[in-house]
Amino acid sequence: MGQQPNIEIDPRDLPRRSAAPGVARSWRPSRPGELNSPEEVPSGGPFGVIGPDSGYALKLVGEHQLALLPGEHHHDVAAAVAAIASARAARLGRAPIADDVAVGMIVLGLDAAAAVDAGVLSNRPRWLANVGHDAAKLRKLVADVPQQLLEATPDALRTHVSSGWIFRNGGSSE
User: If 0-12 CB within 10 Å is exposed, 13-18 middle and 19+ buried, where does residue 9 land?
Assistant: First the structure.
């Protein structure tokens, strides 16, 4: 709208330029330990293989009735099954599904349809003692499961387990 001729405008009321911020400078992290790209995210060894939505394995495990041995706690057994299921799913590049939980239950001797090795049942309370509260012990337990067991289908694994097996390193997840 134009200015009316009978009204004087004070110079202080005129529009003023405001300071515009400059163009943003480029920035890259330069501190040690900063990750600059997805390729730099550590994987394998003590870092494991990270998969999407691994917490969903706990929900899937919660849908199963776990047959506990004397001295075992539900929290520890559920955490172990979920960790094995998550490791299997991550190895296959996806989130956990029911077959992953089935593999975890077969590996730990919790599947009623699979023949269970006596060594697994006798050592399981020791292997799973406090794994729900000790992340290092849980990672060691998962690392001790042979890779061919994690890659097998549940039906193939039931057949394999019936022939007898034991964790790598004798199940020494302590």
Answer: exposed
